[in-house]
Amino acid sequence: MPPEPEAPEAPGLRTVGDVLLQDPLRNSVRVLILLSLGINRQLGFPELLELTGTSKGSLSHHLEQLAAAGYVETRMVFTLGGPRIRVEITARGREVYESLTGALARLGRAAGDGRTAQGSAAGLSQG
Amino acid sequence: MTIDSARAGESSAPREGASASSDTTVGPEELRALADRALLFQGYLLRRAWGVYYLIWSAALIGFFVVPAVLAGPLNAAPLWAIVLYYAYLIALIALAIWATSWAFTQSVRAIRLRDLGEPRREARRRFLQILGIGLAIAALVFAVSFVSSFAGLLVLDVALGGIILAVVFQVRSWFELTPPEGIVAIATFATSIVGSAIALVFTDSQVWFGAVWTIAIVGWGFSGAYALYHAPEEMTAHAP
Question: Which domains, from first to last, does chain A contain?
């Protein structure tokens, strides 16, 4: 019996495969954090809680993983409402973010079915 | 709506409880889903930024139109230092309003960049500087004209503020498929105040009536700001796949 052909590798991910295979990014929550930090440069801890929908302890763990990999930096800032944790993407994290968005753009072109981030946005509508 | 109740409706949040021990490589479909989630979050930040923008402009409009209407009489007989102080206060107000405008604009650009995946940062910075330049030019023109004639200065200000409506409409429509309710209220009340104040200025030549008509926009934008901030968390759930 001839061997079954391998499922074709998703186009666009080949160049970012090494990045996603690294330990810090082998987790959807951490990838999501990096995507959002890439566009916003820095976010507060409460905003990241809103983004990820995880618990505080879980989020702290993910941020520690990203910081250990050098993708983000956390610092305490003092605001009118008291001390707050701010998370900022580093230059290295920015490179990873650019790889991710490049892969997303190529995935969108390869799929050609409108299921890209742009296609998703086009479907958004205010009720 | 509280953030917790909005979160209860979420369906696109990443797997809860994911830890190092359960990590798996993110595949193409999941990467797309995560980008969609980031997009929803950006919509939430954007609507929140718009809420702050409306509130700051509501406060600024009080300073632009209500306070001068109240001070019009006393200011005519005021010493030079009081007039200088008054104009310094107006400049500070304009600076604050421009900052709020640039912040809301920056959030818009970031959201659109994520959605469209690839607009160069250089392009976004150039557009921001263009808008900042236009704002400063308008402010300088209004002040220059108002020194010659307070009537003409107010009329020029009215026309210039009409440009703000266009900027708001452009920014809102560049992201939202349908203009959100607070956007409709903001545009409608602002347009009403511009037209009404110009009419009041021409037919009554009264700064008091001029300021009174602008309370329509002040109340409208205050409402829009509060509405946007209250409903911003809905962006995370209303359009979740």
Answer: 17-107 (1.10.10.10)
Length of chain B: 241
| Residue in A closest to B9 by C-alpha | A53
Q: How far apart are CA A50 and CA B53, in angstroms?
A: 21
Average pLDDT of the residues in A1-22: 55
Q: Does ipTM exceed 0.95?
A: no
pTM value surpassing 0.90: no
Whether the pLDDT of residue B160 is over 80: the answer is: no
Taken in order B225, B230, B236, B237, the sign of the CA dihedral is: negative
Provide the shortest C-alpha distance from residue A107 to chain B (in Å): 8
What CA–CA distance (Å, rounded) separates A74 from B165?
39
A91 pLDDT above the threshold of 90: yes
CA-nearest residue of chain B to A26?
A: B25
Q: Are A121 and B115 in contact (CB under 8 A)?
A: yes
Look up residue A14 and give its amino acid: R
- List chain A residues with CB under 8 Å of B17: 54, 58
Whether the CB-CB separation of B210 and B197 falls below 8 Å is answered with yes
Residue that has been written with the tokens 């968005």 in this structure: A101
The verdict on a CB contact (< 8 Å) between B34 and A35 is yes
Dig out the tokens for A89 from the structure.
Answer: 């993407």
Question: Cβ distance A62 to A33 under 8 Å?
Answer: yes
The residues spanned by each domain of chain B are 29-236
**Nearest-neighbour CA in chain A from B216: distance (Å):** 25
Our CA-based measurement puts residue A1 at a distance from the nearest CA of chain B, in whole angstroms, of 30
Across the interface, whether the CB atoms of B45 and A26 are under 8 A apart is answered no
